[in-house]
Amino acid sequence: MTLYTRACSALLFPLHEHLKHHSSVAVRRRLEQSQWWPADQLAAYRVERLRAFLTQIGVDVPYYRRLFAESGFDPQAVATLDDLVRLPLLTKAEIRTHCELLKSEKSGQLSRYNTGGSSGEPLIFFMGRDRKSHDVGAKWRATRWWGVDIGDREMVVWGSPVELGAQDRIRQLRDALMRSRLLPAFEMSEANLDRFVAAIRGYRPKMLFGYPSSLSVIAEHARKRGVALDSLGIKVAFVTSERLYDYQRESIQSAFGCPVANGYGARDAGFIAHECPSGSLHISAEDIIVETVGADGEPVAAGEAGEIVVTHMGTGDFPFVRYRTGDVGVLGDADCACGRGLPVLREVHGRTTDFVVTRDGTLMHGLSLIYTVRDLPGVKQFKIVQESLLRTDVAIVRGPGWNEASAARICVDFRKRLGRDVEVNVSYLDAIEAEKSGKYRYVVSKVAQPSGAGSQHLW
Question: pTM for this structure?
Answer without folding.
Answer: 0.80
